[in-house]
Structure formats: C-alpha cells, structure tokens
Design a protein that fits this description.
Elements (H helix, E strand, L loop, with lengths): L4 H11 L1 E9 L18 H9 L2 H5 L5 H15 L16 H6 L6 H14 L4 E7 L11 E8 L4 E5 L5 E5 L2 E2 L2 H11 L5 E4 L4 E3 L18 E5 L14 E4 L10 E2 L6 E2 L1 H5 L2 E4 L2 H4 L6 E5 L8 E8 L5 E8 L5 E3 L3 E5 L3 E11 L8 E9 L9
Parallel strand pairs: 10-13
Antiparallel strand pairs: 1-20, 2-3, 2-9, 3-4, 5-6, 5-7, 7-8, 9-10, 11-12, 14-15, 15-18, 16-17, 16-19, 19-20
C-alpha cells in the first residue's frame, strides 16, 4: 500500500507512469501545547559566555552534534566544583563556572544549569530537570538535578547527569528521563547501561547515591522540566516547570525530604507546576520537518511538496537535496519537486542559524513508463 497513493495516482494518470514508493523517512512531529522559551543564539551574554570559556575549542573537530554535546557535558563536569554551596547558589545561572574557578562548590542542579548555559550558548536546546525515585510520604527522596538536550542525530531528547558526566542507553540508544522511568516500572531497569565521559566509558554505576543494588533508572520515577530555558535572561528557579503525569503517577503526590520531615514538593505550593498527560508536551520534536506531496497543478512534471516544520529555535532555512545532490537553500514552505522516469529522491532538513541540520525527511520513489496507460494531460 502506498502512503501517498492519491498524489501518485494523479501523476500516473497524467504521464502514463507507474510509481512505487521505495523509501519513506517522514514521520509526523510531536508538537507541544505548552509554551517553551529557548535561548536566542545572538544574545550578547551568550556570545560572551561562549568566548570567555572557549567553548568553540571544546567542540572543535567533533564528528557530529552527539560528540560535541558529550564534550560540552564533560566541560561542565570539570568546571563546576562538587560540594555544598554556602547559600543556595548564585541567581545568575551563567556565573556558576566562574564562581567554581574562584573556589565555590555547588550541587547537582548547578552542574545541570552550567551545561544548559554552555549548550544554549552554542546553539543547542537544553533544559534543566528535577528527578526523584518512587516513594510516599514515609519514604526518602532522592531528588537530583539533571539536564535534557535535544540531539538531532537521534531525533530525541537525551538526559545527561552532568554531576557524574553520565548518560544512559538501552540497546545502543541514549534515553530521556521518561524512558528511564518507564524502564524502571516495566523491567526494573533491566538492560539500561551507564556511560561516562566524552569517550562513553561504560561503568556499572555512575551515580552511587540511589538505592544500593538497584539500577539507576530507579531515580527517574518523577521528573519535572523547566519551561523557561532562556538561561541568559532568567534567574535561578524563577520559572514555571512542566510535571508529566502518566498512569503510574496519576492521583499521587511527589514528596521531598526524609521522614519525619517529608513534605509535598514545594512547587505545588508555589504554583510553578504545569501538569500535563501529553507526552508531546514534555518531549516535543525540534528542528524536524514532515513532507506532504500535493497533487500537481498546471505544471505537469512538478509535484508540490509542502514542508511542515516543527518548533525550530533559531531557524534559518531548509536544506533540500534532490537525487542525492548538493544541498540547496530553500526559504519557502512549498517546494516544486520535478519528477521524471527512473529513481527520484527528495531529502529535506531544517537548518538553524548555527548551520546545524535537523533530522532528515526523505521520500524516494521509482517511476517507470506504463505501456498499458495513455497519458491524460491537463
């Protein structure tokens, strides 16, 4: 069965062709119905942060965005000192590394925010998360601060435990916080592997502070997500956060602290929780495009292709490759794809102002002359 059967049928009618779909990489984007704020790459404070910490040198020579982000995570891990700060920490999220170099120590959340600042300064979309294990008011919280980053190579969000320079994979694919929590509930974390450093060295345990003998996925039952990720404008803990709820969490309360001093998470009382049961709200696709071929108009050899683009912070244009050729810059929303007999391919990607490409959307078809038909020109 052909996905775009109606469009191909019209082309076949006009040209006496037979068209077969050879390859489609063209899934719809997950679209959030909540508002996120992302960092403007042209922000002068972001540019100053990037220059002051030599971040271009940190990622120089990286093979792709995945390797570059692993390097940035390692930079944050090595440039924030671990320990208890004398106060809750600086209000300015972008000064933590500078304060660490002057001798200050910080908690896990400060590691996460430092990575978020570094990624944002380099044009990637990252956000801080708070996570916790499954417990009631009589249990002990393992509240921890981590970071999430969008990785176009994987077309997904990946959670980084920057305090331990770590991330987690299942079957070779890096996981987000929701996937880790789900793996804990369904398989007790079986198959989840921990990796540390930019070289992805596998370790038995990256964060040793969770329940002894339990996989680290046990710490990802609860998680909230920062909605305001414009880190060079906002202050520490000064924004609304998203609380994803599923069947396992519905009707339950997230507690903090340890008995006998447990209490509901303080974001309930502060009104900072925005609750959602839509996975797309928590994990929207970024820099993705979906292709929609349309029936041809008066130009019989051209098939219009509508470009449906997801949220794309710092968007510049689309790059279009026809039949494996060099990328062409396209600034419109409907591309006139010229189709001929033989193999035809269109590959479209979002390009941001840093020149980085998002995941590809691809349509490949084979077109042959059909001797049983008579061309019916418009």
């Amino acid at each position: 069965m052909r996905v775009f059967a109606d469009v191909w049928a019209e082309l076949e009618r006009r040209h006496a062709w037979r068209i077969s779909e050879r390859r489609l990489v063209n899934r719809p984007s997950a679209i959030a119905k909540v508002a996120y704020a992302w960092q403007d790459i042209d922000n002068r404070r972001a540019a100053a942060f990037r220059a002051r910490h030599h971040l271009d040198a940190v990622v120089a020579g990286a093979r792709d965005d995945w390797e570059a982000l692993l390097r940035l995570r390692h930079w944050a891990f090595t440039n924030v000192r671990n320990g208890s700060p004398p106060s809750y920490g600086p209000e300015d999220l972008t000064t933590i590394a500078d304060a660490s170099q002057a001798g200050a120590a910080f908690w896990c959340t400060h590691f996460a925010y430092t990575f978020v600042a570094a990624a944002a300064a380099m044009g990637w979309q990252a956000r801080h998360l708070g996570i916790d294990c499954d417990h009631d008011e009589h249990g002990r919280s393992t509240h921890h601060g981590v970071a999430d980053v969008w990785v176009s190579r994987w077309r997904k969000w990946v959670v980084f435990d920057v305090n331990y320079d770590a991330h987690y994979e299942l079957d070779g694919v890096p996981l987000d916080a929701a996937e880790l929590g789900r793996r804990w509930r369904t398989h007790r974390g079986a198959g989840v592997r921990a990796f540390i450093g930019p070289q992805r060295r596998e370790v038995a345990v990256a964060n040793g502070e969770y329940t002894p003998g339990q996989p680290e996925a046990c710490g990802y039952f609860w998680h909230y997500i920062d909605l305001d990720n414009d880190v060079f404008h906002r202050r520490f803990h000064a924004n609304a956060v998203l609380l994803p709820i599923d069947d396992a969490k519905r009707g339950r309360t997230w507690y903090q602290g340890a008995p006998p001093a447990t209490r509901p998470h303080w974001y309930y009382a502060s009104g900072q929780f925005t609750v959602t049961e839509r996975l797309a709200d928590a994990y929207p696709d970024l820099h993705c495009v979906e292709l929609q071929p349309l029936p041809p108009g008066k130009m019989p050899y051209y098939c219009p292709v509508r470009l449906w683009t997801s949220a794309a912070p710092n968007f510049s244009h689309h790059a279009i490759r026809i039949d494996g050729g060099e990328p062409l810059r396209f600034d419109g929303s409907e591309y006139p794809w010229r189709i001929a007999t033989g193999a035809n391919a269109i590959d479209v990607r979002v390009v941001d102002t840093c020149g980085r490409e998002g995941p590809p959307a691809v349509i490949e078809i084979d077109v042959v002359e059909d001797a049983q038909r008579t061309a019916a020109w418009p």
